[in-house]
């Protein structure tokens, strides 16, 4: 397996372009196992969140791995009840304790809700204080007015916007809106949350045969060449290995173009925006208690 690629964020920090997402990895112990497995294979980027209930497992795996801290890029996210000036600063200090880390590589605002502008001011302070190396946002493709408001109030522009992105949803509008700020797209649901219809598209089967890869590997390779940061989730050691093995081949420009034709602006995450805040709030107590 060849080495994975790195990209530079808008503040000069380098991030491994590929990482392990741990959403829905059940509990700290399973997360610890998945992260250890990934780190052994060469993964150096882990994406978690307070709302995934497994930051402690990520922290334990990093400690156990013996890999120098500076070689691993850790991202976590804050839930909206943790947003606000003064509140967010403390919430990140709590996050550092759960992860057993002195600093976090990147913290994201998980959703464009509540006092995200106040939260952003605290993230800027945390960044200046060196407790967080890069700061970013997530799911702001749901409301461009909120994105504008954040950008207008920012003194540090988001390093990434983590959003649903896959060959059925290339996030072109978001990409265009963020280009002036050099904010990168970090793709969640990169293989459509495991959707067979996407994975089994004939173009991926054809290219998988040509390159002696799996359909999922072709999709992940597409993300890399498209310029996305990509964080597929798996707790299955076979998939963890397979997903990382995408750095020894290259799709041609024509193949990239052909895949682009699948874009249908389709979302798998379909919570209606009017109900968004109510639904997100229903998780508050459980998250606060983790
Ligand atoms: N910011 C946000 O609001 C947000 C929302 C969703 C996700 N995320 C982040 O993005 C990450 C990825 O998203 P996701 O986990 O929802 O979706 P995903 O990575 O597109 O798909 C994960 C699903 O695909 C399966 N899978 C993984 N590798 C496979 C392979 N090689 N062959 C066949 N199936 C495979 C996994 O099952 P196995 O475990 O069995 O392999 C799992 O069911 C998350 O873990 C999280 O870090 C962020």
TrEMBL record:
Substrate binds at residue 110. It holds the Pfam family Aldo_ket_red. One of its GO terms (molecular function) is oxidoreductase activity, acting on the CH-OH group of donors, NAD or NADP as acceptor. PROSITE patterns: ALDOKETO_REDUCTASE_1 (PS00798), ALDOKETO_REDUCTASE_2 (PS00062). Signal peptide: none annotated. The record marks 77 as: Lowers pKa of active site Tyr. The active site is at 52 (proton donor). InterPro entries: AKR, Aldo/ket_reductase_CS, NAD(P)_OxRdtase_dom_sf, NADP_OxRdtase_dom. Residues 30-263 form the NADP-dependent oxidoreductase domain. Keywords: NADP, Oxidoreductase. Belongs to the aldo/keto reductase family. PANTHER family: 2,5-DIKETO-D-GLUCONIC ACID REDUCTASE, NADP-DEPENDENT OXIDOREDUCTASE DOMAIN-CONTAINING PROTEIN. This is 2,5-didehydrogluconate reductase.
């Amino acid at each position: 397996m060849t080495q994975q690629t790195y990209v530079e964020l808008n503040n000069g920090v380098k991030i491994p372009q590929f990482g392990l997402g741990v959403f829905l990895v059940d509990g700290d112990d399973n997360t610890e196992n998945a992260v250890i497995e990934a780190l052994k294979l060469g993964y150096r980027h882990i994406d978690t969140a307070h709302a995934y209930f497994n930051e402690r497992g990520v922290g334990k795996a990093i400690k156990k791995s013996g890999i120098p801290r500076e070689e691993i890029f850790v991202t976590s996210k804050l839930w909206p009840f943790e947003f606000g000036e003064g509140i967010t600063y403390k919430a990140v200090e709590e996050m550092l304790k759960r992860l057993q880390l002195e600093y976090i590589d990147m913290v994201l605002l998980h959703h464009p809700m509540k006092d995200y502008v106040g939260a952003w001011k605290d993230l800027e302070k945390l960044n200046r204080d060196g407790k967080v190396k890069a700061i970013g946002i997530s799911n702001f493709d749901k409301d461009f007015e909120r994105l504008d408001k954040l950008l207008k109030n920012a003194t540090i522009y988001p390093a990434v916007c983590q959003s649903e992105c896959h060959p059925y949803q290339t996030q072109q509008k978001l990409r265009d809106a963020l280009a002036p700020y050099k904010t990168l797209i970090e793709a969640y649901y990169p293989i459509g949350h495991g959707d067979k219809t996407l994975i089994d598209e004939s173009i991926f089967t054809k290219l998988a045969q040509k390159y002696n890869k799996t359909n999922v590997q072709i999709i992940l390779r597409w993300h890399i060449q498209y310029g996305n940061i990509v964080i597929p989730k798996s707790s299955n050691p076979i998939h963890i290995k397979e997903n990382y093995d995408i750095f020894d081949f290259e799709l041609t420009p024509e193949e990239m173009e052909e895949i682009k034709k699948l874009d249908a602006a389709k979302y798998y995450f379909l919570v209606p925006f009017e109900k968004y805040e109510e639904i997100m709030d229903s998780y508050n107590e459980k998250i606060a208690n983790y």
